Amino acid sequence: MTAPVALVAGGTRASGRAIAIALGEAGYTVYVTGRSSAAGRSEMDRPETIEETTAQIKTGFPVRVDHSDPAQVAALAERIGTEQGRLDVLVNNVWGGDMFTEWGKPLWEHSVERGLRMLHQGVDTHLITSHHLLPLLIRRPGGLVVEMTDGKAVDGEYRESVYYDLVKVSVIRLAQAQAAELRPHGTTAVAVTPGWLRSERMLEKYGATEAAWRDGTARDPHFCITESPHFVGRGVAALAADPAHDRFTGQTLSSIDLAHTYDLTDTDGTRPDFPRYFTEVMQTGRPAGDDGYR
Prior knowledge:
The chain has helices at 14-25, 50-54, 70-84, 112-137, 162-182, 200-205, 229-241, 255-262, 274-282; strands spanning 5-9, 29-34, 60-64, 89-92, 144-148, 188-193, 252-254.
């Protein structure tokens, strides 16, 4: 039996890497793309590479791709089609906009150039990727598109940067639009959001390591509710394996939603519920503490 095939676009680090690893563990052949590779770093200047991700996958292919370049994405789609003849899961996780975000600045003070670059990196790349890969995905029913975002509600709390807010809300709407267009082809599209993610960059910011992540609470006591990237990675892999995942099409699912649905835990055996913690603790000004939220 031919192994199912997944593309994790933006699988260099954090949730993208964890999703790629989880899909690999589930038996998928996984193509992992990104701009940071053994050949050189992207403008984010991070040390993680796509090769490091695929080294943790039994059958993984690293492909250096800039998803803002339609020609490179078209070539990727042609390669997957030629080598595999199918695509079963598309994870749109391209971002690369952190360095352009000017937090707390109103629209009229935020750099327009940096803001538009964020929109290009976080929205245009997803549109380009879906445009070229969906024809391969719909060759057979049962496919899954996962649009990775940050936050769950389109009408939720403002994210303190108009451009960042627009990117993350746009990705949710993109998942809804794809759900409508893909439904006749028996294909599911959802948006997925982690909670407070302990990415490599976030761990550095809070002076912690994954092995001793609670050290981050010294800088922010609320760091206690963070989750490893593998929490959402396991959730996406479980969703992909669910033959009835079409019941979720058009929805935005959080890592805790997926954990409850598929009885999953994080790597430490807990189940961090960031949405409930944020509402009940952080928004109300209660003292930090994850007791009862894992």
